[in-house]
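Pasting as-is:
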Amino acid sequence: NNNNNNGEDPWERAARVRTEWVLGQLRNVGGRPVQELLLDPLQVALEWSDEQAAVLCGALEMLGDSLVRLSLTPSAVNMSLPTRVTDVVATHCRRLRTLHALECPWTAEALAALAAGAREHLEELTLGGIAVGIQHPLPAPALAHLGSLARLRKLQLDATGITDEQLTAVVRGRTLTHLDLSGSRQVSDRGVCALAEACPLLQTLNLCNCSLVAAPGIRALAANSSQLEHLDLQRVPGVTGSLGALCRGCPGIRHLCLSVCTLLDDDLEAICTQLPRLTHLDLNGASGPSAQAWEQQLGRAAGLELLDLNSLRLLPGRVDAVCQRLAQGCPRLAKLSLNNSSVKQPGVDALRAALPNCALSTINCELE
């Protein structure tokens, strides 16, 4: 009823009341300032409205330096936040230790302000995302400012377009233990060499789809990254012929992804014999080794718990022989994927007889 609202539009009044209520709820929880704000995933309608952005910006301005952990992940990749939200994060939330802002756009000024304001606090940071990379690319030159974050340990830069020069600036300081560069198609051996030399404590590294990384980059990891435990090299061409050196230099690897990679027989042997802690191995779509190598080597990785052999297609009976060797040599195997492979019923029977608790997937396989 407009007569009772001093001429205020009823829709505007409803929006103001909702905003004030949300901010009131956030102002104080249990008598203490809010330290964590986890909006993951953020649920919006078709796109961000001015009211929704205003509520979030108001909350962030109000909470400001009391926040130590903030997660802003849209509910869908096409619903990225307005840039004014990340502007507020950069200027008001200067004591954050953890910030997850996947699929959120940033201006160069906001990235610089974030690095300057949270320099002594930020330990974990997630930026980028495929949708943002297409619709609102991050200002890659400004990523170099992240190198000033003195306490940064975990960094995700998914599909950001970062270059070797910017990566070199980001990794300086030797503090990173976790780094995700998946989809960084401009990163080459030069950037990976700088990374390996600057971050000897690296435990987790994702180079998925870094198509410019060749053998020198893999050898640099082998020489400098002895603490690696999780490594994703999906579609990285440099793995071919380099895995022997990698396994010798990084014997603590437990999770290894080589999906859609080309391997040599020696590469497969190194994986299965020189990584005593290996539990998860992804060879989905991997090619190159001879049938004899597949048969002889996989069963030697006795600690395997999860193995992906999707799309493994060999001559008749050869994948069944692989399964029989796995059944004999990998007693801990809990999950095996053979989708789209040439496995037949004898191989499946051998696995089920020896490993009755193993979850076996044979989608799109002609078992008979």
